[in-house]
Amino acid sequence: MERIPSFQQLRFSIAFTYKILLCLISILVLLLVTTSNHFAQANALVLQEKLAHIPVTTANETSLTTLKRFYAKRDYQPIWWGSSFTPEISIDKVISFIASAEQHGLDNQDYELNKLIQLQKRDGVDSPSLESELTTIQSLLMLAKDLRSGRLLASKADSDWHIEQHRFDPVDYLNDAIRENHLARSLVELPPQSLHYQLLKTALAKYRDLEVKQQNWHPIPESATIRPNILHKNIPLVRKRILRLYNIQDDPKYGIVKIDNERYDSGLVEAVKQFQEQHGLNPDGIIGKQTIIALNRTPKQRIQQIRANMERLRWMPRNLGERHVMINIAGFYLSAIEGGKHVLEMRIIVGRDYRSTPSFDSQLSQMVLNPYWNVPQSIAVKDLLPKQQQNPAYFASQGIKVFSRHENVPINPDSINWNSIKGRFPYVLRQNPGKKNALGYIKFLFSNPFSIYLHDTPSKQLFQKDVRTFSSGCIRLEKPWELARFALNGNNSGINLTEKINSGETITINLTKRVPIYLTYLTAWVDDQDHIHFAEDVYGRDKRLLEYARW
């Protein structure tokens, strides 16, 4: 008779079997881990060897160093080639992202796009070679840096640019993104996220489309001033050009018809006014020299202009501050921004071409009401001395006091033979507060090595000029009182500006909350209504940048 196992025997047998299974599983896991480690070590050795034998050239030295540093931080483990790791994004998607460099005004051939495409065709989508991976990552590291902080070295591309260029390490950024499995999102976040940049990107695409579609871009001949409602042979050409330009801006609201009528009719006048407004010109509807120059800019020229300005935006800090002042030197414009909205806009006057206003950033820290003007020596010698030599009563008429260099005691200007002064100017000039003071009634101070500040001006008529390069480097304001109120908002709010200015006393107000200020040079930008604006390259900084970039 067969013996039936007892309960204890069954329990022992099950426990023994369980231990055997655990042991087998442990051995299997150990084998898998060992095998995996073996493959990982083998892959690392192959990858290291491949990196060591990539030829170093002048063109690739920096990018190759970055590539080696990238894989060193990964213990030389590949991402796609022979890897057990499944990345969030495939290599073909990364190559597609590299191909999009052109959308940002960059040249995708700087990132070996043709080579990447050929390697992809050779290897297939699902089995990238080690060469394909290394080439892709090398290009991606370059593009990541260029999108985040700029393709060019700002100080070399524009010697007048003094806003610190953002430092960015693509090695840590991309490795972190891969490790956390959010590479796709991180790539999207590389370029500036500002609406301004995104709208310029859209404008670039539209002008490239225009360049392809509009081959015949015949220049409009220079002519005498064309005023509304007159007949002129250039009007059909102007009408055609305006139609082309507004077509790319999706702005059909103007009553422009495709006719060869030479009359400068009201519908075209309104469109020309809008065009002038968007090109930094006085929107009077009168077609003069500057309007013709702007109309004759080719799509290719505008494309280069947009590319240069997208690059400048990549140089800028990502966080400009909740409340800040943005000055566009090239556009002769100031905007005060709060919470992302333009709460104040005004025309400005900037430095003459030989006393150009530099680009830099700082913080508004003080306002001076009823300021004295301590005349810089260069202005005293080059500008004011010749006027005094021509008119001995000039200094007195302008409220300008004369002092020796060593004593703070006024000297009677009539006692000086001004025509005898040669070489070094031995005096100090100071203009008293008042309506004739060159600084007006308010000046704004912020730390900088260029002795630049913002100020009021008695020469209000100059704000009606198209090209407003009349100062010695400082910024003259169309609406100084409004800027003062913006600066005082949230701090020193109890101050009565009118009362203090009417007192005639020179009063310095320290801002308890400093306001970031940025002096930039942008010849292309997009406004809040999605309208593209262009300005002339008055200082030649676009030209220098493009030559340096070889675009």
Question: How would you characterize the overall build of this protein?
Answer:
The protein is of the alpha+beta class. Among the domains are: 136 residues, no CATH class; 80 residues, Muramoyl-pentapeptide Carboxypeptidase, domain 1. The protein contains 18 helices and 15 strands. The strands form three sheets. Strands 1-2-3-12-10-9-4-13 form an eight-stranded mixed β-barrel. Strands 5-8-6-7 form a four-stranded antiparallel sheet. Strands 14-15 form a two-stranded antiparallel sheet. It is globular. It starts with 6 loop residues before the first helix and ends with a helix. About 1% of the residues have low confidence.
Coarse morphology: globular
Radius of gyration: 33 Å
Mean of residue pLDDT values:
89
- Terminal CA distance reads 98 Å
Largest sheet: number of strands, sense, barrel closure: 8 strands, mixed, barrel
Number of distinct helices = 18
Poorly predicted runs are: 29-35
A few lines on this structure:
By secondary structure, the protein is of the alpha+beta class. It is 42% helix and 15% strand.
Supply the key terms.
single chain; 551 residues; alpha+beta; Muramoyl-pentapeptide Carboxypeptidase, domain 1; eight-stranded mixed β-barrel; 15 strands
SSE blueprint:
Layout: H1 7-52, H2 61-72, H3 91-99, H4 113-123, H5 130-149, H6 154-157, H7 170-179, H8 183-188, H9 195-213, H10 235-248, H11 266-278, H12 289-295, H13 299-315, E1 323-328, E2 333-338, E3 341-351, E4 360-369, E5 373-374, H14 377-390, H15 394-397, E6 400-404, E7 410-411, E8 427-431, E9 442-446, E10 454-455, E11 469-471, E12 475-477, H16 480-488, H17 497-502, E13 507-520, E14 524-526, E15 532-534, H18 541-549
Parallel strand pairs: 1-13, 3-11, 10-12
Antiparallel strand pairs: 1-2, 2-3, 3-12, 4-9, 4-13, 5-8, 6-7, 6-8, 9-10, 14-15
Helix pairs in contact: 2-5, 2-7, 3-4, 3-5, 4-5, 9-13
